[in-house]
## 1
Amino acid sequence: MIADLRLPLKIKLGGREEQFAREAAKMTNEYLNMYRSLFPGLTEKHYLAMSAFHFCYRCIELRDKNDTQPYIQRLENIKKSLDAYLEDKE
């Protein structure tokens, strides 16, 4: 249940999927309530949109924070340098 709506989502019961779904619904409702108290008088669509934006923003922020591509590229460059150095020594 999110925003007093029963959503017809199918999840596997008894596992991590159920745990994640319950936690996601709880967090969503907490953010809905937070935005309701911060901005009273708006429509439910506004609160849902603000909550969706909040979660998407956080997801992008975490994705960017966990971007390992620059490190992988740097390691590739180090490997090439080491390979070139070892070839010169042989």
Note: The first helix runs from residue 16 to 38.
## 2
Amino acid sequence: MTSLRPNRRLAAALLAAALAVTALSSCSGSDAPPSAAAGSNESKGSVTAPAGAWTFTDDRGEEVSLDEAPKVIAADAATAGGLWEYGIDVTGGVFGQLELADGTPSPAIGLASPDDFDSVGDATQINIEALAAKKPDVIVGAMWDDQQFYGIDPEQLDEVEQIAPVIGIRVDDRPVTEPLARVAELAESLGADPDGEIADAKAAFEDASKAFTKANEAKPDLLVAAVSGSPNEMYVAYPPKWPDLSYYQELGMNLVEPKDHPTAGGFWETLSWEQAGKYPVDLVMADGRGGSLASIKEQIPAVALSMPALAADQIVIWPAVHAYGYGNFAAILGNLTKAVDAADPDVNS
């Protein structure tokens, strides 16, 4: 199962999720997530931190003030991937998934390579000793509510905050444009050129958004569901909770909104695989943390393969955890646009 749960059990749930994602998790026509495939393993190059005192106010309203701009930065994988796009070296350690179980880069790091970062923990628990040894000046983390940092066990937060100030970027219950802008703002404060790579990546994102909107306008009746799964259950995402899915809705994608989503903090509706046909979807967006397309298809229960969308191979990757960089998100939108263009909206007829 792949879940993002804004509650005190998030850490344990995410570890189980990372180990259990086995179904509906890759991309039609490609064995690699589109963001990773579009990227380069070459370094983006570091930027020069601005001189003088440095201040940044995070999404909790907490101000971090230092005598000089931080040079050694630690971050969760998704934020690290976004900062990397703009030339910010995340040398203070990265916590979260860098590689999938099959060895391919995780969608969480976007256009970066796993080799660009040093791991200091998985998706649920930081190695406190390894993080402390890096001596970060600040630690940046994506937040799924006002208190829960992705990748930081709540019981570890006090220890983490003793190592360095923590900066929170809120990502849930808002369109992805907001955390994208905040990560770009943070990168600019750290020395990235707002008229250089940030501007170029944002322009690509805006162009990709327009193309995606046009594709959705051409197929308003195309019903889409974002899903994940475990060996015994299927999970249908509730779009308003997710930064990417809520943005896709803004751009006209006709996404299923399950009405029975009391579990996982409202992020999912849980179904049995026998209920896979509950929604007559034409296109399946499959959680991208499960590995290659071939391995995923082998693990989809036979009862679900009869879904018309799956039978017609109308399935595209959904990077449920993705880097908060404009360039990465432009690549994700480009892949989705191709899938919408190619999908038959009458597959359930």
Note: The two ends are 30 Å apart (CA to CA).
## 3
Amino acid sequence: MQFSNFVKRISDIMRIDAGTNGDAQRIEQLSWIIFLKIYDAAEMNWELENDDFQSLLEPLHLRWRDWADFENDNVAIGDELLDFVNNTLLPSLKNLTIPTGTPKGQALIKTAFTDVHNYMKDSVALREVLAKVDKIDFTDPQESHAFGEIYETFLQELQNARNAGEFYTPRALTDFMAEHVQLKLGDQVADLACGTGGFLNSARRVLFSQIQTASDSELFSHSFHGIEKKSLPYLLCLSNLLLNGIDNPDILYSNSLTIKNYLDYTNKDCFDVILMNPPFGGKEKADVQEKFLQGERSNETADLFMLLIEKRLSKQGGRAAVVLPDGFLFGGGNKTMIKKKIMDNANLHTVVRLPTSVFAPYTSIATNILFFDRSKPQTTETWFYRVDMPQGYKSFSKTKHIKREHLKDLDQWWDHREEIAEGNGQYKAKCYTRAEIEKRNYNLALCGYTKEQQEDLLSPAELIADYQAERAQYAEQIDHTLEQIMSSIG
């Protein structure tokens, strides 16, 4: 089947339906439909692998092949189709009984449909959408792989649907991070705000290449863990992982920041590797902050995630790679305390400075990748490296996004580290001792772009947004300091 313009063709059908309002609803509608088709293909594989396999959906005739198989004409028409979807299919999936001992990959069908809705009101249009999805044979490895490539594009479409850009981190970054945390079979890999599963899928690509035996395959299938609090990215994540052959993903539909109190986490809650891009720019209410220690609380989502990552990283050989905005690097107050805590308890060995437009068009805020691990009891030195815009690019954009090849110079530098001086006291890459960082009050904004370089790269609109973001970050530091002063004087 040809998949070019697949999403566009289905979106065009949905636009004639009065029930789907805007791209966000169309994406959500298509997501649960595709998921059911992928889940049906997964069940077919489970049936082949296990003679005793029992589908959770078969007794209620909820399998795709029972009601949406056009080849066998198992599709209702008109009001009968809408009545089945609205009053039987979705309610039944939300209220499934999951027997004790059901494998995680099979059981996730219930959670996936917790907050799913059918927006379509036109039975003819719905039938057309089902027909197009039914043509995809997800049991065919070649066809499934081909669709997997299109699925990447589908996930990028989220960047243009409301504020959904937070769900998608460019594949160039997720692949780079997964390739540089020394993943090995048997590692328990986690993303505590997993969105659509990009980091876990990149980890899959690295680990899959290491499989040689049946026992390796068993280790591989139970290696992936995620937590996501929003229903749409949660559903997309499950589809993404099942589509790519991860049959037993341990993906929790919840908010990582509220699952437990900070002090209640133990070694059994830790992971060998954490790869993630915490939601930045978000604010947390008092009840969420209260989950953390009194002196470490912050109203910024990313700050709390950094505390959680450090807490849930395995004490023996744990490795983490985390995307964070510039504000965390130079921020004071609680951010200083968090950075010190990480450097006291782990080895912050590398900070990669990224161009401001990596996440365009969602945001022009400059971002960074922090790599830290448990190879040392604490940080003694940290390397900084700045990724420059590739030749011929003034900035990244929706049509000119960052590619894996744009990080090849960083790949070459990674294993053979050396300082790269630029004159006038400026460096593209440099190692700083812990003492030097402490003297800067844990300001990690090193080896970054100069103001002149930023102004050359950014458009006027991006410059304004960049200055506004920086001003807001400084204002927050001032507010925090004032709060401390007011508290100390009663």
Note: The chain has 19 helices and twelve strands.
